[in-house]
Specification:
By secondary structure, the chain is an all-alpha fold. The protein has five helices and no strands. The protein is globular, with a radius of gyration of 26 Å.
C-alpha cells in the first residue's frame, strides 16, 4: 500500500496512470492516422486504376471513330476528328469517373494540355528508345506510351482537380456534399 493507505492512488501514482492513458490514446491516434493514410493510398490506387481504364476506353473510342470516319474522308481528317471526339469523351470520363469532380469550361479549355504532354513524352521517349537504346521501333511506341502514363495522370489531375481543397482522393465521391465534387453541367 502507498502512503496514506489509498492503495497506491496518490498524486504521483495517478500522474503515472494518466500518463499511460495519454500514451495509449496517442497510440490510438497514430493507429487512426495510419488507417487514414492506408485509406488514402487505396483511394489513390483506385483513382489510378480508373485513369487507366478511361485511357483504354479512350483509345478504343479513338480507334473506332477513326475506322468509322476513314471511309468518308481523308485519313488525316478522320484521324484529327477522331482525336478531338475521343478527347472530349476523355474529358468527361476523367472528370466524372476518374477524379469525381465537376467539369467546368476552364478545365475543358485546359484539358488538351494533357494530350500535348502525352504526345511530347511519348515522342521524346520513342526517339530515345529507338535512337539511344536501340529498341525495336515496332515495340518502342508501346513502351513510350506506358512511360507517358504517370506524366499524363499528374497533368490531368492538376487540371481537373481543384487546388487548395485539401482533397483526399477517397474523401468525397458520388453524392458527396462538397460543391466541387458534385456532378453538374459544364459550367
Amino acid at each position: 500500500m502507498g502512503a496514506g493507505g489509498d492503495g497506491g492512488s496518490g498524486p504521483a501514482e495517478r500522474g503515472r496512470e494518466h500518463g499511460q492513458e495519454r500514451e495509449q490514446g496517442q497510440g490510438r491516434g497514430q493507429g487512426e492516422q495510419e488507417r487514414v493514410r492506408a485509406r488514402g493510398r487505396r483511394a489513390r490506387l483506385a483513382e489510378v486504376f480508373r485513369f487507366a481504364l478511361v485511357g483504354g476506353v479512350n483509345t478504343g473510342t479513338f480507334f473506332g471513330c477513326y475506322l468509322l470516319l476513314h471511309p468518308w474522308m481523308p485519313y488525316f481528317a478522320a484521324y484529327s476528328l477522331a482525336f478531338l471526339l475521343s478527347m472530349v469523351g476523355s474529358f468527361f470520363l476523367n472528370t466524372y469517373f476518374t477524379y469525381r469532380t465537376r467539369p467546368t469550361w476552364k478545365k475543358f479549355a485546359l484539358f488538351p494540355l494533357t494530350n500535348v504532354t502525352n504526345y511530347l513524352v511519348q515522342s521524346v521517349g520513342l526517339y530515345a528508345l529507338v535512337t539511344w537504346a536501340g529498341m525495336d521501333d515496332r515495340i518502342a511506341p508501346l513502351v513510350a506510351a506506358v512511360v507517358a502514363i504517370p506524366f499524363t495522370y499528374l497533368i490531368s489531375q492538376r487540371i481537373l482537380v481543384p487546388r487548395g481543397t485539401g482533397r483526399d482522393p477517397g474523401a468525397a465521391g458520388p453524392g458527396s456534399e462538397t460543391d466541387e465534387r458534385q456532378p453538374s453541367r459544364l459550367a
